[in-house]
Design goal:
By secondary structure, the chain is of the alpha+beta class. The protein contains 14 helices and 8 strands. It has 2 domains: 2-218, Endonuclease III, domain 1, CATH 1.10.340.30; 229-357, Nucleoside Triphosphate Pyrophosphohydrolase (Alpha-Beta Complex), CATH 3.90.79. A hairpin with a 3-residue loop joins strand 6 and strand 7. Bound molecules: iron/sulfur cluster.
Length: 358
């Protein structure tokens, strides 16, 4: 217990919120706190900040967000990745606006019912907005606790999660839950860093087991390694009299609800144009009218948590409109491309081709 008290007291004594001022710190507005927490779930603070400000400005209240068109929200989210967050954000805002009379839930359990809010996010919102005694437990907290207490139970096992969560709850100062949670998160983000932890200046160093036993490099322990799947996308950029074809990704897969050029996915990027045309006929029932193949682009790559997407873009000038196109394909003016939200790999291609496509 002495060890626990040392941790709690020194962590709180170290914490000065003004050292790392951010617009969602020290506020009580649950809507704004929730927005910031969803944005920061898989995004660094430096990148998330601009998005947070944009969302708060565009949708000052949860009712404003609930009333926004889906495509507009996806466009505002563009570039942040993990788009299920944006879809859940909208679903939760509409749930609060329509089912809860526009009042943000005030209990941990109520917050947990919002789509996209897991135990960590619920604890963060409940403690920051209402000072409710729920400890945050995320990657930062796993790392800090594993090192300071010298715990080698893998954090991604049921046993590990239980052990770390129980310890985190014991360490929480229930009288100032919000401040304590913010302190441990800031500590993990600025002192006990994944690589190069600042042990020399660390306020907890005299009690740190990993430092004493020289085990910093091996803690925290993870049991599983992420295996990445490689995918190969051929995007077909059809041009006809200043218009291009796009489609919405509707299937349950990465990038759901984002737009893209018509896509053929197969086993490699080394495919001839003849084979791709045969695939277009087989998959989409589409026979191309007279056309000129302008070029096949260089390979663009996007790394996701579990996948690597390799993409090649084929630019095709059509001399006529195809007899019919699949129902979810859409002709738009090239100049309107910037109105739609695309995955990053397509944005990068468009950035490269800006002069040619506009
Ligand atoms: S001494 Fe180093 S490893 Fe231990 S808590 Fe501090 S920063 Fe982390």
């Amino acid at each position: 217990m002495k060890h626990h008290r040392f941790f709690q007291e020194n962590l709180l004594a170290w914490y000065h919120p003004e050292d790392r001022p951010l617009p969602w710190k020290g506020i009580q507005n649950p809507y704004h706190i929730w927005l910031s927490e969803i944005i920061l779930q898989q995004t660094r603070v430096e990148q998330g900040l601009a998005y947070y400000l944009r969302f708060v400005e565009t949708y000052p209240s949860i009712q404003d967000l609930a009333a926004a068109p889906d495509d507009e929200v996806m466009k505002l989210w563009e570039g942040l990745g993990y788009y299920s967050r944006a879809r859940n954000l909208l679903a939760a805002a509409r749930y609060v606006a329509h089912e809860l009379g526009g009042v943000f839930p005030t209990s941990y359990e109520g917050i947990r019912l919002l789509k996209g809010v897991g135990p960590y996010t619920a604890a963060a919102i409940a403690s920051f907005a209402y000072n409710l005694p729920h400890a945050v437990v995320d990657g930062n907290v796993f790392r800090v606790l594993a090192r300071f207490f010298g715990i080698s139970t893998p954090q991604d096992t049921t046993e590990g999660k239980k052990q770390f969560t129980e310890l985190a709850e014991t360490l929480l100062d229930a009288t100032q839950a919000g401040r304590y949670n913010q302190a441990i998160m800031d500590f993990g983000a600025t002192v006990c860093l994944p690589r190069n932890p600042q042990c020399k200046t660390c306020p907890l160093q005299s009690g740190c087991v990993a430092l004493k036993e020289q085990r910093i490099g091996e803690l925290p322990v993870k049991s599983k390694k992420i295996v990445k799947t490689e995918r190969f996308f051929h995007y077909l950029v059809f041009n006809f009299e200043g218009q291009v074809l796009i489609q919405k990704r509707e299937e349950k897969d990465i990038w759901q609800e984002l737009y893209q050029f018509p896509l053929l996915e197969n086993e490699s990027l080394e495919q001839s144009w003849e084979l791709l045309q045969a695939a277009l006929l087989e998959n989409n029932g589409l026979t191309l009218p007279s056309h000129t193949l302008r070029s096949g682009s260089k390979v663009f790559q996007q790394l996701l948590t579990h996948q690597v997407v390799n993409a090649r873009f084929w630019e095709i000038d059509l001399e006529d409109l195809p007899a019919s196109i699949p129902a979810n394909w859409l002709w738009i003016k090239r100049g309107a491309l910037n109105k739609y939200a695309f995955p990053k790999v397509i944005d990068r291609y468009l950035g490269d081709r800006a002069l040619l496509l506009l």
